[in-house]
């Protein structure tokens, strides 16, 4: 029995199960049956009634489902129309997203917030006092050369690093301190595939009693493993920054050749990840912090290069062109 | 700096190959970036010398380091040239008129030299560090420079007028032609080496062509001096002249090496050019050798590095680095800093020395930082959440440069600020102004996308604009959210509304505005709390041309700092009714110049109690409405909080609204 709409089903129900329906007739006829046959016949009729009721219920359900389906999808998916084709592409929904640099920063910030660091942001136009002097860079230091900085006045310039915020924070807040500082920095440089005059950095520093070089190594190693993967191998090697002593650079073994040298890492075997070190006691003193009681460490990452390394982006200029076909790939 | 491995081994004999040497130096802090093999078997290490270690700018300097790092012996020659009469002091004189610029000047005379090529071993050594051989005398001065770090200069003695030297500042207008052929006009700040008549060298930077060693030279005056680093650096910068000499002088040479280098070069000249070294070193010196002393506490080593270093090891490392032991007790050790280590000033610097020779990777202390919760400030989380809203509307985030031209940024910027912030240097001509609006930068990015054939481009950026403040050194750095929408004006407006709504900023209103950069009649100004929140508009035709655009995208910029300030921290629940809503769709006909804002306002003012919301969905202009009019279609949703509305009640409310619209804007129901 098949019925294609509510009325047809109702007609059937009335015909078989209604007050004047066939089952009713059968039950009436039962009165005329032989006494011995009544029980069996009665049972058979009831079974029939049950069976018919079931079928009719099923028909009703199917119809209701079909109806509700087509009611809610009037023209979108015309199942019964001859041209419906589920292999057609879906409606175009172009999802947007964040810029890969900001996503990279978000990821790095996540890692450090997870290690107990607070986030602070500082001005891009900065006093030379904060960008150099307080960071133990004396007036005649080559880093202050006018050719290598975007000076605005004699003592005002675009910050070349996010480190000035260390000073601003330490002047206002006493230890214990644990901060990271993300932001744009500026250095005059001929623009090419690996250099830009504007780029992003993430600074970090921690000052407390009993912070040692071992803590610096530990935090750096945790970060490298979280960001680059469990199997990342690191090495610390001495370097020089005016505001840290001892200073170090953190390298990671090239993922391709594991340290022996190959084209992917330019033959060096190790890729520079960041600069870091113990905060020079002079810097702490300049901020009114007792360098006998407190020690601290600081580190600084560029963002563009790790992002380029992680995602195989060959040209730094792509970040600032903002071609949507580039942006989409990482959004 | 290029280093020859064979050359290094002359002073620090060891069994390491070039890779192991590079590794040892890198682990000690002198990073070797590349290793090149030369055709005659020697290897060249290309090392990055940090600015605090000028003592590494020579082979003996690096050999000294290598010896300390690898526990090898350091040996270098002790020059003792044979001397002849008459003494140098009888043949020439040196007058130092500026002892501040030149604290020490020494001179030797070597006569009867035969100019010729230098021997192969020396030519190879020079080639390894990237120098061309010139002649034996010049090569010797270069060789000694790269050997010990002391720059030398050889003059043709017979070409010096008056056969004597005067060290002084230049007089205004004096000129010199340098040995590289370049001509320079000197200033009173330039320190020069002069003879009786004229400058014969820019001190510490470059010698003059006139007095250079030529094939005809017979007698040599050999200069070895200590010049003030800043004087040399300033002259080098001003004249745009750099040399291996100026590089080292501006980083400060070791005053103790001056005499050694002179004797060494003289001995080599005698040996290789047949010259006769005249007795005595003419030495005009006002130099004070300061030997600083530093005490290092053993407990402090552990405090900073996290690992204790045993006193015997401390002694051994410092001795290998040429620190002289002065005294020691149970708690500390006192040492004298070598003259070539001007970077070591205090205890912490010595601790670094210990750490790097001990090996950073060998320091195995236990980390002790405490656990705590880190926090992101609202300024950061606010941006993240707002970016998520814009992303979900299909916009991609851009990062554009902060520089622009003054003219463009002032034309587009809606924000107050006295003047502009300018940098003295710029990467592109005229683009030395820090932007006061992000819109033009986004329009450039948009234009780039269009040139490449990308369609429906929608970009946003969170970035700072720089607004100078009168009387303050630093500008106000206002965080803005800006967007450019190539899809449509309503797309941009809808996105901004979604953002404002999601941030739940109360009391935002907008009104028509006039802005020259936006097409007439498309600009809007947004206000909240009585303050300017932002602007938007379709790009004006001539502006679009400037960006090479044939279409006119919509641009908007909002004050995100203000948005964050006004956005409530926590959302508060507003009851939602379980009662069914009644929706009526209406279309009204109004004059063309009637703004939707007027319709909204009229409905808002009438606002029947059971009106829940109103939503525009269509505008029609064309043949089906009378000329001079347009049709606006919108839906009204009615609901009572606690009971079902009857259709009569809804009818009454609709009627009231239609009457209000008729009265205020002359709206008629569309038939």
H/E order of the elements of chain A?
HHHHEEHEHEEHEEEHEHHH
Gyration radius of chain A (Cα, Å) is: 38 Å
Question: Can you tell me the residue ranges of chain B where pLDDT is under 50 for at least 5 consecutive residues?
Answer: none
CATH topology of the largest domain in chain A: BirA Bifunctional Protein, domain 2
- Assign a percent range to the helix content of chain A: 25-40%
Greatest chain-chain contact: A-B, 90 and 86 residues
Give the full name of the CATH homologous superfamily of the largest domain in chain A. Bira Bifunctional Protein, Domain 2
Number of helices, counting only DSSP H or I runs of 4 residues or more of chain A = 11
The best one-word shape of chain A is elongated
Task: Describe the protein.
- The complex is a heterodimer of chains A (331) and B (671).
- Chain A is an alpha+beta fold and 331 residues long.
- Chain A has two domains: 6-72; 100-330, BirA Bifunctional Protein, domain 2.
- Chain A contains eleven helices and nine strands.
- Chain A has helices spanning 6-17, 22-30, 38-72, 100-114, 128-131, 164-172, 213-228, 281-286, 304-311, 318-321, 324-330; strands at residues 118-119, 125-127, 156-158, 177-186, 198-208, 234-238, 244-253, 270-279, 295-302.
- A seven-stranded mixed beta sheet of chain A has the order 1-4-5-9-8-7-6, sandwiched between helices.
- In chain A, helix 1 packs antiparallel against helix 3.
- Chain B is elongated and about 130 Å long.
- Chains A and B meet through helix 4, strand 1, strand 2, strand 3 and strand 4 of A and helix 2, strand 2, helix 7, helix 10 and helix 12 of B.
Which helices and strands, and how do they pair?
The complex is a heterodimer of chains A (331) and B (671).
Chain A: H1 6-17, H2 22-30, H3 38-72, H4 100-114, E1 118-119, E2 125-127, H5 128-131, E3 156-158, H6 164-172, E4 177-186, E5 198-208, H7 213-228, E6 234-238, E7 244-253, E8 270-279, H8 281-286, E9 295-302, H9 304-311, H10 318-321, H11 324-330
Parallel strand pairs in A: 1-4
Antiparallel strand pairs in A: 2-3, 4-5, 5-9, 6-7, 7-8, 8-9
Chain B: E1 2-4, H1 5-11, H2 18-28, E2 31-37, E3 43-48, H3 59-70, E4 83-84, H4 88-91, E5 94-96, E6 104-111, H5 120-128, H6 136-148, E7 152-156, E8 165-169, E9 175-177, E10 183-185, E11 191-194, E12 199-202, E13 206-207, E14 220-226, H7 229-239, H8 244-251, H9 258-273, E15 276-278, E16 282-285, E17 293-297, H10 298-305, H11 311-320, E18 324-328, E19 332-336, H12 347-358, H13 378-392, E20 396-397, E21 403-404, H14 406-412, E22 421-422, E23 433-434, H15 439-451, E24 458-467, E25 476-485, H16 489-503, E26 508-512, E27 524-528, E28 531-538, H17 541-546, E29 554-559, H18 560-566, E30 582-591, H19 596-606, E31 611-620, E32 629-638, H20 647-665, E33 668-669
Helix pairs in contact in B: 1-3, 2-3, 5-6, 6-9, 7-8, 19-20
């Amino acid at each position: 029995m098949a019925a294609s709409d509510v009325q047809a089903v109702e007609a059937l129900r009335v015909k078989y199960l209604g007050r004047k329906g066939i089952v009713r007739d059968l039950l009436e006829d039962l009165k005329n049956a032989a006494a011995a046959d009544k029980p069996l016949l009665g049972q058979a009729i009831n079974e029939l009634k049950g069976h018919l009721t079931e079928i009719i219920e099923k028909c009703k359900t199917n119809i209701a489902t079909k109806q509700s389906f087509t009611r809610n999808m009037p023209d979108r998916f015309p199942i019964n129309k001859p041209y419906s084709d589920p292999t057609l592409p879906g409606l175009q929904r172009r999802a947007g997203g964040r810029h890969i640099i900001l996503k990279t920063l978000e990821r790095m910030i996540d890692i450090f917030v997870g290690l107990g660091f607070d986030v602070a942001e500082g001005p891009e136009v900065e006093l030379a006092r904060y960008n150099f002097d307080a960071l133990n860079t004396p007036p005649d230091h080559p880093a202050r050369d006018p050719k290598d900085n975007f000076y605005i006045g004699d003592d005002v310039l675009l910050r070349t690093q996010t480190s000035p915020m260390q000073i601003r924070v330490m002047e206002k807040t006493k230890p214990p301190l644990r901060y990271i500082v993300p932001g744009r920095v500026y250095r005059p440089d001929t623009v090419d595939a690996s250099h830009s005059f504007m780029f992003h950095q993430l600074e970090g520093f921690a000052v407390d009693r009993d912070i040692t070089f071992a803590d610096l190594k530990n935090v750096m190693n945790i970060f490298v493993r979280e960001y680059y993967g469990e199997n990342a191998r690191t090495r610390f090697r001495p370097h020089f920054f005016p505001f840290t002593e001892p200073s170090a650079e953190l390298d990671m073994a090239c993922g391709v050749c594991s340290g022996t040298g190959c084209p992917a890492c330019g033959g060096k075997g190790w890729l520079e990840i960041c600069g870091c070190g113990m905060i020079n006691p002079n810097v702490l003193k300049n901020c009114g912090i007792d360098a006998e009681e407190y020690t601290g460490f600081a580190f600084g990452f560029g963002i563009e290069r790790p992002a380029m390394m992680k995602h195989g982006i060959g040209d730094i200029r792509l970040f600032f062109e903002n071609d949507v076909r580039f942006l989409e790939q990482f959004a | 700096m290029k280093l020859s491995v064979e050359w290094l081994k002359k002073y620090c004999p060891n069994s390491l190959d070039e890779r192991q040497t590079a590794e040892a130096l890198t682990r000690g802090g002198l990073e070797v970036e590349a290793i090149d093999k030369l055709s005659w078997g020697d290897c060249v290490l290309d090392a990055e010398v940090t600015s605090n270690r000028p003592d590494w700018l020579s082979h003996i300097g690096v050999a000294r380091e290598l010896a300390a790092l690898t526990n090898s012996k350091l040996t270098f020659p002790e020059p003792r040239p044979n001397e002849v009469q008459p003494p140098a002091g009888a043949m020439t004189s040196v007058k130092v008129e500026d002892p501040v610029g030149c604290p020490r000047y020494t001179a030797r005379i070597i006569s009867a030299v035969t100019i010729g090529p230098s021997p192969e071993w020396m030519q190879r050594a020079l080639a390894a560090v990237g120098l061309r051989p010139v002649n034996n005398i010049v090569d010797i001065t270069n060789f000694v420079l790269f050997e010990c770090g002391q720059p030398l200069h050889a003059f043709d003695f017979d070409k010096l007028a008056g056969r004597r030297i005067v060290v002084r500042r230049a007089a205004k207008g004096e000129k010199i032609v340098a040995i590289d052929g370049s001509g320079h006009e000197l200033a009173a700040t330039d320190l020069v080496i002069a003879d009786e008549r004229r400058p014969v060298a820019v001190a510490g930077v470059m010698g003059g062509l006139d007095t250079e060693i030529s094939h005809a030279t017979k007698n040599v005056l050999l200069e070895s001096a200590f010049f003030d680093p800043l004087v040399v650096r300033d002259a080098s910068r001003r004249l745009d002249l750099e040399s291996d000499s100026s590089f080292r002088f501006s980083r400060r040479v070791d005053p103790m090496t001056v005499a050694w280098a002179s004797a060494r070069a003289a001995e080599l000249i005698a040996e290789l050019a047949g010259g006769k070294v005249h007795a005595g070193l003419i030495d005009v010196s006002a130099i004070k050798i300061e030997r600083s002393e530093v005490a290092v506490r053993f407990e402090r080593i552990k405090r900073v590095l996290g690992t204790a270093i045993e006193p015997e090891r401390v002694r051994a490392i410092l001795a290998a680095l040429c620190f002289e032991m002065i005294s020691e007790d149970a708690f500390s050790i006192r040492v004298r800093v070598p003259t070539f280590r001007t970077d070591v000033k205090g205890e912490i610097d010595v601790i670094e020395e210990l750490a790097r020779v001990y090996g950073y990777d060998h320091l195995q202390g236990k980390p002790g930082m405490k656990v705590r919760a880190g926090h992101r400030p609202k300024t950061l989380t606010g941006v993240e959440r707002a970016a998520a809203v814009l992303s979900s509307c299909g916009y991609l985030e851009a990062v554009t440069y902060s520089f622009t031209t003054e003219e463009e940024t002032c034309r587009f910027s809606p924000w107050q600020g006295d003047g502009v912030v300018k940098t003295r240097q710029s990467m592109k001509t005229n683009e030395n102004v820090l932007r006061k609006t992000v819109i033009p930068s986004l329009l450039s990015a948009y234009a780039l996308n269009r040139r490449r054939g990308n369609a429906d481009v929608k970009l946003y950026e969170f970035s700072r604009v720089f607004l100078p403040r009168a009387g303050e050194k630093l500008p106000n750095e206002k965080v803005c959210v800006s967007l450019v929408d190539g899809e449509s004006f309503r797309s941009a407006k809808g996105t901004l509304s979604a953002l404002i709504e999601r941030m739940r900023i109360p009391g935002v209103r907008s009104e028509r505005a006039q802005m020259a950069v936006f097409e007439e009649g498309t600009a809007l100004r947004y206000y909240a709390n009585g303050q300017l929140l932002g602007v938007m508009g379709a790009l004006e035709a001539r502006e679009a041309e400037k960006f090479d655009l044939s279409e006119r995208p919509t641009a908007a910029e909002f004050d995100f700092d203000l948005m964050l300030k006004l956005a409530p921290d926590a959302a508060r629940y507003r009851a939602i009714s379980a009662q069914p809503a009644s929706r009526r769709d209406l279309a009204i006909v109004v004059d063309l110049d009637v703004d939707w804002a007027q319709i909204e306002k009229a409905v808002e003012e009438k606002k029947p109690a059971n009106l829940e919301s109103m939503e525009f969905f269509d505008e029609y202009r064309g043949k089906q409405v009378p000329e001079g009019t347009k049709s606006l279609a919108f839906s009204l949703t009615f609901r009572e909080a606690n009971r079902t509305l009857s259709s009569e009640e809804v009818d009454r409310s609709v009627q009231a609204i239609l009457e209000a619209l008729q009265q205020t804007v002359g709206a008629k129901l569309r038939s």
